[in-house]
Structures are given as structure tokens and as C-alpha cells.
Amino acid sequence: MSKFSVNLSWAGYLYNLVADNNQIILTSQLYTSKDACLKGIESVQNNASDANVEDQTVKDFEIKGNPKFEVYKDDAGKFRFHLKAGNGQIIGTSHDYSTKASCLKGVESVKDIAEDADVVEEKVFADKVILGNIFSADKEQAKAEAVAIVDFRLAYFGNAEAVKEFIGKNTVVEHLEKDLLLPIKLELGAEIR
Q1: 130-158: average pLDDT
Q2: Are 130 and 174 in contact (CB under 8 A)?
Q3: Any idea of the CA torsion for 25, 29, 34, 39, to the nearest 10 degrees?
């Protein structure tokens, strides 16, 4: 079932529009309040189905009025789109697509599902984040700067910058003075006690 997944991260609120196949097809900017984030969702629901499509990948493209989807190529040569509201503000951005056809399918998916998608608040915060030199027995992922633990399960193993999205108001953040070896098989969801 399609949904707007509302997440609160270390930096603020954002939403993702998630399709029936569990793929994220539209992501918001960061909002400083939950109300502003919910208003952003409402704007997508009100604007997406009737929005024009402006294909900026063709020479001498026709400029369309707002609301509109702007389809463009990024610096890496990938296709993306923005959704602009009637006032011209960007209210959602896609991920990158390798072909224009798949990007346009993404636009159509947003048009089809946004209006009726449920709004769901998701828990993304860790109970505990550990920062330091962390090692595992896994040869492919032998070392990390940070781990995040949610409900006594490994939710993240990687760098200190990316783990910030797991830090909420009630997250315990521990800075290690010594190296830590995780005595478990390194799999997301592995139990840590």
C-alpha cells in the first residue's frame, strides 16, 4: 500500500512517498516542524495529479505553468524530477533514474498514488549509538566509526556522519575510549545484548 512515510531525524522532519512496491519515489526537503512537513504532504496531494510535465532534457523545451513536474538530467547524466507547487516552490524530489522512460514512469506513479496515499509516522531513532573504532569478524565490513542499535538489534554499521539520522531526543550516544569488537555475525537485525 502506498504511503507518505514521515520521519524525524537528527536534522528535522522529512517525508518519503513510498509506492506499493516499497520503493521511494518522492522525497521532501527537511522541515523544522512536523506541521510544516504535513503541510508539504498536503501540497503534494493537492498538486501532483493535475501537474504539468516539463521535459527539460530536450532542446528548446516548452515551459509549463505551475504546478508541474520538472524532468531534468543531473550532473552525473542521470534523470530526475522535481514537483513544484502552484506557487513555484519545490515540494518533492525524485531519486535518480538511468533512463528518461523510467523517470517518466516515476512521475506517473506520483500522479497516480499521491492523492490517496496514507500518512504514516515511522520510527527511525536508535535506542543507542556507539561512536569509535568498531570492528567485526565480517571481512567485507571489518571496520566502522559508528553503530546504531534499535530494540537490541543492529540497525546501522558504518560512518559517523550517516549514523546521525538514527539519533533522536532519547538516543543514548556513547563515545568509546577503546576499540570495540562486535561478537556477532554482521547482519542488520542481528541481536545485540
Answers
A1: 82
A2: yes
A3: -70
